Amino acid sequence: MFKGTPEIIVQRREEIVNACEQLYQTMSFKDITLKEIGNVTSFSRPTIYNYFHTKEEIFLALYEREYDRWNADLEKIVNSDQNYSGQQIADMIARSLEKRAQLLRLLSMNNYDMEENSREELLVSFKRAYGRSLANFRKILEKHCSGISGTEVDRIVYVFFPFMFGIYPYAEVTAKQKAAMTDAEVDYKYQSLYEITYNCLIKLLGSSNQSGK
Q: Which end of the chain is more exposed for a tag (fewer CB within 10 A), N or C?
């Protein structure tokens, strides 16, 4: 690890993660290499090794940052003094994820590789951000959906979070994929990130309210 002040280390790590994020806008996970990332930063590939040992560690840091961004939106809902209906909660969470297409893309692609090929301390840091999202989501349900029992809150959390892994590939479909579906004569209605998320949450919250009656 580079021997510098904590501020310099954070700054340089952020520059590397920013470069990875920039490349990820137009390239796939498998095509992005440390050399490509080095070309976008002011560092050589050997210098990058002072901060991240693998490409997966850089992506994991980007992944963590995406959870931090989502947590900021979730915490606004948690801290709001307003009373929201189930429909409003579904709408707000769906809109918060609509802005986090990159998080949903990372969830759907190479999640195992990122975690398996990262050092434990970086994985723990990532899991803290992920854990905050679980806690914030749970707090939203407990605060604004008072008719739902603790058991039902658990059920919703552990249905919705695995569900998130599949949102992106169903919403962000390429022209090639659409053409293949047409040629295969598959009758399929395409939905946006927002629509898929909202419809899932409405179903979960509605089912829970009915079961609690």
A: C
Digit-coded pLDDT (tens) for 45-71: 888 999 999 999 999 999 999 999 999
Q: How many residues does the chain have?
A: 213
pLDDT tens figures, 83-120: 899 999 999 999 999 999 999 999 998 788 899 999 99
Write the CB contacts of 199 (distance below 8 Å, at least 6 apart in sequence). 191
Q: Which residue intervals of the chain are DSSP H helices?
A: 6-24, 34-40, 45-48, 55-79, 86-98, 101-108, 111-116, 120-144, 150-163, 167-171, 175-183, 193-211
Which tokens in the block code for residue 174?
Answer: 């390429």
pTM: 0.91
Rounded to an integer, what distance in angstroms lies between the CA atom of residue 144 and that of residue 5?
44
Q: Round to whole Å and give the CA distance between 57 and 126.
A: 10
| Maximum alpha-carbon separation in the chain | 62
| Residue at token pair 């914030």 | 136
Average pLDDT, the chain: 92
CA 28 – CA 211 distance, rounded (Å): 43
Query: Running DSSP on this structure, what letter comes out for residue 50?
Result: T
